[in-house]
Write a structure and sequence with these properties.
By secondary structure, the chain is mainly beta. It is found in: Cell membrane. Keywords: Calcium, Cell adhesion, Cell membrane, Glycoprotein, Membrane, Repeat, Signal, Transmembrane, Transmembrane helix.
Length: 1057
């Protein structure tokens, strides 16, 4: 048997699932239980013949049926994944093969695909016993070979992961045998192997172990206590070895199912039989109850045929002497019609177009009943008086379709009642409702309210004045009922009719575009057309006669009551004058305009129109833009409007990458007194153009003339990833979609480039004849119109290692290598000379030390700036240090970037080759011997002189003993301490008992400011004592701590340490 790890097991399941898919019409997958959420189950898009992106476009989804959703579809990869943890034992319990069925719906084609997922078992459960301890009573006169039943262990796993064997702890009296049953269960039995003697040992303690066959093996144990009894030579005996009974699932609690009976011929307590369940599963223990004295089996829970159809239990009869026997009880649950059918609408539409052809699908629904047999057979129907019918498709799926054309103008919506009825007795049924709206189709043309119209207008009318309106109605809805008006083309006195009359396309109001003259013509006839906005649009016409009048001629008649009556007439000519009572009205409530980026400056791109029903100056409209800002600039610097015509102009060239849209308000004023105005919102959307070339991020273009080289080993297999070209495009949408292609290659067919990824891979295996240097030109192109592209040249070296590449370099590279080696040699020689000079200075400092004064033998720290050293360090940024093995001073050359250097007071008047004098440094200042001040020229990092390996120290506060005061140097300026104070610091190393003190801080007095510079005096003393140093120590503080310690005497010396 091959043992596989968890990862290997998963791969095996996927492989087996693939094999099962190849030979099945239904889609089948395999997945192990207890997998994490998002575990890959199968490639649904591949099995359905779809691309992953088509899943969302075509509405592919899993039909739930109202149960817990265990699986989900990954919209990116098109794969079926787990939606949560899957427990096979919870779903299928002890069934060896666990299958889950689901349906996948393709929404746009309304096709259903069956999917079967097999849940593979893993060894996630250990065998367990229900009993915490087992007690077996055995007669002391029991014959050898007697068998005593032991409790069965339960393992919810199946196959090799289930219970395989039992073990018994070693003992001299009992052995273990396992007896198989017809149902495959393994029943352990305790076999008596040795004679028992209660007086010798009254009880035996054993341990029963149950093991499964998983990897690793899991086990469970239960302690067994064997009690030895006095002689009880009769075992209870059941009247039947197996009790079988069938019960309906609707039995009420407390109903007796059957009665078991066992007899024992013994007398007294040994003949009293007590009944109990053995090895009963938890589900059965909650349903059935056993009377221990009468043997009656009662119902204490509710039976459900749809959950559990069969129960197998073991009943034990035990007498008072401890002898027992068992019998099986088999209970079969009979189904009754207690579940109503369930209707699940998997897909539906709430609207259908009128005049749709018969057979149009309205909804897809699933009908099921959890009962079985005739109780689970379901029929579905709808009322007969509706223009719909049900057709059965796949399994229990029905589709609701139309059986004739619909008319929205007659019935605008339908409330469809779906009824599902089973075949049980009595039958049960379920109803659900679908509300369906009938969408409008443009099947009704607009209809004018009158068959013809007559209008009257005064001559000398103001131009642009409205004088009449027509109205047409459309029985359709929404855009199909939106009516627009127009005038039929015609001519009047040789001029087009549109130069005399215009009509508002939305309101049907007619306007006079000129001032009519009654003497020129009295009337005119035209046709008005009403169009709806349907597809295709429908229209109707009506005739309009316009009669011209100059004014109102009112005739007044006065009549008396005489006989005959006499009368007189008089006429009043009334002209109607206009009042500014109508504000300008825009033709639309809001406007949207579109403009391409990179537009020419000053170009017009949109216009707005406002109409005023007044006349003359009251109807003269002017346009303006509301003041606003855009990205900190006034809106008037971007957009302008012609005040007379309402035409908008772009004052600048817009850039889609800068902003996508802008919103503004347009105001229309008339010229009346007082003037009236109205506003309208205008949204301007900038449309993207392909004006940005793809930008290559990697490999970056060289700035120093060098060329990057990618390495491809000769052992690379086809498909080996050499490098990847990364590019971006500042445009958006399709203009930013990039594709990669190999434009040119020194070896065609050797490399390939991913169309969408830009990955450069080997197309075939590399051969010895392939050149070392390969040049590839990769083009990156967007999908704009026209497309823009950029190219990059890649250098690929075909070699297994860098030496192989160097072995094939040209002569120029060889010259560069020789030049680098020569420069390195010169650098090494310079370092050696510099070290020699430093050693010479150290030797001279020893001579000065021997000829000392009152501080003879006390080292004085001196800090100088070395121009040549600083130049050297600034070039190479190295640190050079001498360890304490020289028994002399320590000189540390730290990294550059330090501008100030300490010099002694008297060095201001002397000049040595390595000293920076006053004249050699501009602006450094002078030393003042009377003021005990020296100029700080350089502050360098502190180096630990106490360890064998020089390292940098963090600055600490300097301490001295005997009430003396150390010196703390400030940036660019240091103060010299008195001779006695410096002597106290120098002698601190030889102070009695000082070396053993840690953290000594007595008599500390520090001058200066800043963060502090220097370090603890006790550390300094212990370092000197530990190293046995007799020379001067030079300490260079860190660059961020500019204070440095010097002695007063060092102000009069000029030595380099």
């Amino acid at each position: 048997i091959i043992r596989l790890g968890s990862s290997g097991l998963v791969l095996l399941y996927i492989f087996l699932g693939t094999l099962r898919e190849l030979g099945a019409v239904q889609i089948r997958y395999l997945v192990p239980e207890e997998t994490d959420k998002g575990f890959f189950v199968g490639n649904v898009s591949k099995d359905l013949g779809l691309e992953p992106r088509e899943l969302a476009e075509r509405g592919v989804r899993i039909v739930s049926r109202g149960k817990t959703q265990l699986f989900a579809l990954n919209p990116r990869s098109g794969s079926l994944i787990t939606a949560g943890r899957i427990d096979r034992e919870e779903l299928c319990e002890a069934i060896s093969s666990c299958f889950l069925n689901m349906e996948i719906l393709v929404e746009d084609t309304l096709k259903i695909y069956g999917v079967e997922v097999e849940i593979m078992d893993i060894n996630d459960n250990a065998p367990s016993f229900q009993e915490e301890e087992v007690e077996i009573k055995v007669s002391e006169h029991a014959t050898l070979g007697s068998r005593f039943p032991l409790p069965n262990a339960r393992d919810p796993d199946v196959g090799m992961n289930s219970l395989q064997r039992y073990q018994l702890s070693p003992n001299s009296y009992f052995s273990l045998q396992v007896r198989g049953s017809m149902d495959g269960a393994k029943n352990p039995e305790l076999v008596l192997e040795g004679s028992l003697d209660r007086e010798t040992q009254a009880a035996h303690h054993l341990l029963l172990t149950a093991l499964d066959g998983g990897d690793p093996i899991r086990q469970g144990t239960v302690p067994v206590r064997v009690v030895v009894l006095d002689v009880n030579d009769h075992i209870p005996k059941f009247t039947q070895s197996t009790y079988e009974v069938s019960v309906p699932e609707n039995l009420s609690s407390g109903t007796r199912v059957l009665t078991v009976n066992a007899t024992d011929p013994d007398e007294g307590i040994n003949g009293q039989v007590v009944y109990s369940f053995r090895n009963v599963e938890s589900k059965a223990s909650k349903i059935f109850q056993l009377n221990s004295l009468s043997g009656d089996v009662l119902i204490q829970g509710s039976l459900d045929f749809e959950k559990y159809r069969f129960y197998e239990m073991e009943i034990q009869a035990q007498d008072g002497g401890g002898l027992s026997t068992t019998a099986k009880m088999l209970v079969t649950v009979v189904d009754v019609n207690d579940n109503a059918p369930e209707i699940t609408i998997t897909s539906s539409t709430n609207s259908v177009l009128e005049n749709s052809p018969p057979g149009t699908v309205i909804a897809l629904l699933n009908v099921q009943d959890q009962d079985s047999g005739e109780n689970g057979q379901v029929s579905c129907f709808i009322p007969n008086n509706l223009p719909f019918k049900l057709e059965k498709t796949y399994g229990n799926y029905y589709k609701l379709i139309t059986n004739r054309a619909l008319d929205r103008e007659q019935v605008q919506s339908y409330d469809i009642t779906l009824t599902a009825t089973d075949q049980g007795s009595p039958p049960l049924s379920t109803e659900t409702h679908i509300l369906l709206n009938v969408a409008d189709d443009n099947d009704n043309p607009p209809t004018f309210t009158d068959s013809s119209y007559s209008a009257y207008i005064l001559e000398n009318n103001p131009r642009g004045a409205s004088f009449f309106s027509v109205t047409a109605l459309d029985q359709d809805s929404k855009e199909n009922a939106q009516v627009t008006y127009s005038l039929a083309e015609d001519t009047l006195q040789g001029a087009p009719l549109s130069s005399y009359i215009s009509i508002n396309s939305d309101t049907g109001i007619l306007y006079a575009l000129c001032s009519f003259d009654y003497e020129q013509f009295h009337e005119l006839h035209l046709w008005v057309t009403a169009h709806d906005s349907g597809n295709p649009p429908l229209s109707s016409n009506v005739s309009l006669s316009i009669f011209q009048v100059q004014s109102y001629d009112i005739t007044l008649t006065a009549t008396d009551q005489g006989s005959p009556p006499l009368s007189t007439e008089t006429h009043i000519l009334l002209n109607v004058a206009d009042d500014n009572d109508n504000p300008p009205t825009f033709t639309d409530s809001s406007y949207s305009a579109y403009i391409l980026e990179n537009n020419p400056r000053g170009a017009s791109f949109f216009s707005v129109t406002a109409l005023d029903q007044d006349s003359k100056e009251n109807a003269q409209v002017t346009y303006s833009l509301a003041e606003d800002t855009l990205q900190g600039a006034p809106l008037s610097s971007y957009i302008s409007i012609n005040s007379d015509t309402g035409i908008l102009y772009a004052l600048c060239s817009f850039d889609y990458e800068q902003f996508h849209e802008l919103h503004l308000w347009v105001t229309a004023h008339d010229s009346g007194n007082p003037p009236l105005s109205s506003n309208v919102s205008l949204s301007i959307f900038v449309l993207d153009q392909n004006d940005n070339v793809p930008e290559i991020l990697y490999p970056a273009l060289p700035t120093d003339g060098s060329t990057g080289v990618e390495l491809a080993p000769r052992s690379a297999e086809p498909g080996y990833l050499v490098t990847k070209v990364v590019a971006v495009d500042r445009d958006s949408g399709q203009n930013a979609w990039l594709s990669y292609r190999l434009l040119k290659a020194s070896e065609p067919g050797l490399f390939s480039v991913g169309l969408h990824t830009g990955e450069v891979r080997t197309a075939r295996a590399l051969l010895d004849r392939d050149a070392l240097k390969q040049s590839l030109v990769v083009a990156v192109q967007d999908h704009g119109q026209p497309p823009l592209s950029a190219t990059v040249t890649l250098k690929v070296a075909v070699a297994d290692s860098i030496p192989d590449v160097l072995a094939d370099l040209g002569s120029l590279t060889l010259y560069l290598v020789v030049a680098v080696a020569a420069v390195s040699c010169v650098f090494l020689a310079f370092v050696i000379v510099l070290l020699a000079l430093r050693l010479r200075r150290w030797h001279m400092s020893r001579l000065l030390q021997a000829s000392g004064n009152e501080l003879a033998g006390v080292p004085a720290s001196q800090f100088v700036g070395v121009d040549g050293v600083r130049a050297f360090l600034q070039t190479y940024s190295h640190e050079v240090s001498l360890t304490a093995d020289s028994r002399g001073s320590h000189v540390i050359f730290p990294q550059p970037n330090y501008a100030d250097t300490l010099v002694s007071q008297e060095s201001c008047g002397k000049s040595e080759p390595l000293l920076i004098t006053e004249d050699s440094v501009t602006g450094l200042g002078k030393c003042d011997p009377t003021g005990n001040q020296v100029r700080v020229i350089s502050c360098l990092p502190i180096v630990d002189v106490f360890s064998s390996q020089p390292r940098r120290l963090r600055p600490h506060t300097l301490s001295g003993g005997g009430g003396g005061r150390g010196l703390l140097c400030l940036p660019r300026l240091c103060h010299c301490a008195t001779g006695s104070q410096t002597a106290a610091l120098a002698h601190v190393a030889s102070a009695p008992g000082f070396r053993q003190r840690v953290g000594w801080r007595a008599g500390v007095s520090v001058c200066g400011r800043g963060r502090g510079a220097g370090f603890p005096a006790d550390l300094f003393a212990r370092g000197l004592a530990h190293r046995g140093l007799s020379g001067s120590h030079v300490i260079f503080p860190q660059p961020n701590y500019a204070d440095t310690l010097v002695s007063q005497e060092s102000c009069g010396k000029a030595s380099l340490f």
